[in-house]
Amino acid sequence: MSTRSRVAAIYEQVRMRNAGEPEFHQAASEVFESLQVVLERHPHYADAGLIERLCEPERQIIFRVPWTDDSGVVHVNRGFRVQYNSALGPYKGGLRFHPTVNLGIVKFLGFEQIFKNALTGLPIGGGKGGSDFDPKGRSDAEVMRFCQSFMTELHRHVGEYTDVPAGDIGVGGREIGFLFGQYKRLTNSYESGVLTGKGTAWGGSQVRREATGYGVAYFVAEMLEVLGTSLPGRTVVVSGSGNVAIYAIEKVHQLGGTVTACSDSSGYVVDPAGIDVAVLKEIKEVRRARISDYADAVRGASFVAAGSIWDVTCEVAIPSATQNELDSDAAAVLVANGVQVVAEGASMPTTPSAVKVLRDAGVAFAPGKAANAGGVATSALEMQQNASRDSWSFDYTDERLAAIMRGIHRRTVTTAEEYGRPGDYVHGANIAGFIKVADAMAALGVI
Ligand code: NDP
Ligand code: 2IT
Known about the structure:
The protein is an alpha/beta fold. It folds into three domains: 53 residues, Glutamate Dehydrogenase, chain A, domain 3 (Glutamate Dehydrogenase, Chain A, domain 3, Orthogonal Bundle); 132 residues, Leucine Dehydrogenase, chain A, domain 1 (Rossmann fold); 152 residues, NAD(P)-binding Rossmann-like Domain (Rossmann fold), CATH 3.40.50.720. The chain is 48% helix and 15% strand. It has 16 helices and twelve strands. Strands 9-8-7-6-10-11-12 form a seven-stranded mixed sheet, with helices on both faces. It has a five-stranded mixed sheet with strand order 1-2-4-3-5. Strand 6, helix 8 and strand 7 form a beta-alpha-beta unit. Helix 7 packs across helix 15 and helix 14 packs across helix 15. The protein is globular, with a radius of gyration of 21 Å. NADPH dihydro-nicotinamide-adenine-dinucleotide phosphate (NDP) binds next to helix 8.
């Protein structure tokens, strides 16, 4: 059987046995496209069912999460934790609380996480979890009761050496606090290393909150350098206005670029003078309000309820909201408006056909597993600090983050060149991540 048909046969088997999970198929197929060239050079990676094992999570946990709202009504949500691959270290990856969460979504995220975590060069395996719970409009007390119920089941499956969750969409410092409090209570032990994204007063790391967004901005700066240019004077659009988006905007501004638009699920705001990050934080982090409030608060800014944020002209686009938010029509508009760099702050925000449009137009495109790895990398730094009962300064941690992002960029670029696809960050990231995990899996035997 040729390498091409061997790869195609394994992918078909993966697709069939995971029926009805389109996001997982999408994430897997992107990696499989890169495997072809690896297997042609190193056929041994297909031995011992390695690829089939890589596609099958080591463990998938699904559980009931009952909780009572403020008016006494009982709700039942579904909790998930997919422990995907522990060849490089304990399972590591976020928890997502959003009504769209299902097993296929958690599996796509967990699968991506394996390669992302490998690319950081740090000792972390891949996993992901979450729930179809919708925190929007819920009181702090309701969110607390939900988190306590969620952890009441999850606690038996996680631990410093086993599985270390963190945040993702809908899970930030508030939720990590409630989850950690319940874990501590149930286990009667102050096991800081069981969760990352903790508050800095109780075992958290400096820069973890900022890390994903800062990391994307550092990565974009590296990409622009390859193109012979830099951030000062560049116009940037960042979708979303959550954890990743806010700190991507903050760091782009610190590095001299101007972010003129950001969004949430209700629409987008345009501020030609550059998004005022202090105002954005007050609306999103303090009041948990809607993005339209920004246009009410800032003179010269406007809110657009219908339409696409990608209509806003920019040289750099950083999609940082959710999966498949940037489609081929949006990519064509970005290209027509002169975009030079697209870097994914979110997980898989760019559809495969949009990636093709960007690639064909010669736009530098960085997949999330490389560009947004700064968050999980800083989580691994938090684990290091917890293990040594230490806490590092903001500047030192930020320097470590910047160095890690430069390393991921270099590894991605050189691997793409080595495998005959210079400038292709998707192949570079997939191949570099795959080889690291595959070598470890091969060494550990058939398990
Ligand atoms: P947050 O919950 O802080 O923010 C999410 C943002 O995206 C909000 O502005 C939200 O708008 C918007 N959004 C979410 N879902 C949708 C949707 N279905 N349609 C339109 N807009 C949506 O999440 P994060 O910033 O943490 O995560 C954003 C992305 O970044 C995710 O893809 C996540 O996997 C990825 N990521 C996160 C990391 C982290 O450390 N947090 C690390 C690496 C990647 P609204 O409030 O209206 O829903
Ligand atoms: O997608 C991601 O990398 C995250 N949500 C962060 C995971 C983590 O463990 O910090």
